[in-house]
Amino acid sequence: MSRPQRDELKYYLSWEKKRAFLSRIEQALEKDSYSDERASTPILSLYYDSPHFHFYHEKHDGVPYRNKVRVRTYDYNFEGEKLAFIEVKKKIFEKVQKIRIKKKKFTVENLDPTTWEFDSESEGLLGKIIERYNIIPAVQVFYTREAYVGAHDSDLRITFDSLITALHPFEDLVRDDLIRPDRMLIPEDHYILEIKATEKIPGWITDIIAEFQLKQTPFSKYTTAVEKLNLLEMVPEVGVYEL
Fold this sequence. Notes:
Elements: E1 7-14, H1 15-25, E2 29-31, E3 40-49, H2 54-60, E4 65-73, E5 82-92, E6 95-106, H3 121-133, E7 136-150, E8 156-167, E9 190-197, H4 203-211, H5 221-228
Antiparallel strand pairs: 1-9, 2-7, 3-4, 3-7, 4-5, 5-6, 7-8, 8-9
């Protein structure tokens, strides 16, 4: 399923500022229906890239039209049969568009992209990306997400991500990873705030952002995880952009 393009703003917050910001806007929000009573859910994503990390370099170099491929489950691992989503996240200048394919009985074996099957034209784009870039599993990222939607504006979505942790492909998450400096992408008492809307971000939100003097961040879970685990050291420098 292809979703409409949307605006997506990101901010880096301390625990104190997150608590104050949420307190300021919570009357206009409802917790996401897919989250628990605390509006929280675990998320594990396996990101894919070419053997020479094309997607990483495109993000790093600020290429305005680029793709990112991942498999996401709302759990701590991919063991057993999971509800999972194969996703292509497309950046088109300042807009973001997502192609999302739902898989109800996704297994560890399905992490191999050669097992993926596609039906619609939009999903076929993913097949072309797989073939062109010869994508393989690159890195996993785990985090917990606190998610809300607008109480009177269902187009608005606000999330706070924390405990963002880098893992090698197929590596099991253990509790100690969540506080290991060599795995944590941000300190455990900080958050990445994301504000998303298909239409324009509401004015009342932008006013509160200005009130709290929040500054946008280009933070990317994928590229930061690649750097945290020093994965580029295993890639030859010559031919990085060759297809």
